[in-house]
Amino acid sequence: MTEALPPIENLTLRMIAMPRDANPSGDIFGGWLISLMDMAGGTVAIHSSKGRVVLAAIDKMSFIRPVFVGDEVSCYAHIVKTGTTSMQVSVEAWVRRPRGGNIHKVTEGLFTFVGIDDNRKPRPLPQK
Question: What letters, b where the CB count within 10 A reaches 16 and e where it falls short, cover 24-47?
Fold first, then answer.
């Protein structure tokens, strides 16, 4: 089976999975991966909203393959939908394995971010 390639133009964050990020069996914790995806999606949301945002919901999350110590994890994010104060950001995590360089999608999710003001109250997002 041939797997599609990652959406290179949406590369937002890249990190190496380290031993401190793994469980005793050597698999990377899902929470570590979600935190990377949150940062990637948040980065896109901050730039688009031109201000502070908070993660309001993870609307969908699929773990497709495990991540191992030493894998290079790349997160690709893009805005799917923008509302008055919130936006949905699609985030995919892909790995490049250190041995052989195989590339695989490992996780995908849909994150909702809300723009907030200095008082941490929802604020209108810029309309394009």
Answer: eeeebeeebbbebbbbbbbbbbee
Q: Does 124 map to a domain?
A: no
- Quickly count: other Cβ atoms within 10 Å of residue 65's Cβ: 14
What is the number of domains present in the chain?
Answer: 1
Note if the pTM is more than 0.85. yes
* Domain assignment of residue 88, given as a range: 8-115
* φ and ψ at residue 45, rounded to 5 degrees: -65, -40
CB atoms within 10 A of CB 101: 8
Q: 21-52 pLDDT, tens per residue? A: 999 888 999 999 999 999 999 999 999 999 99
Residue 128 has pLDDT above 90, yes or no: no
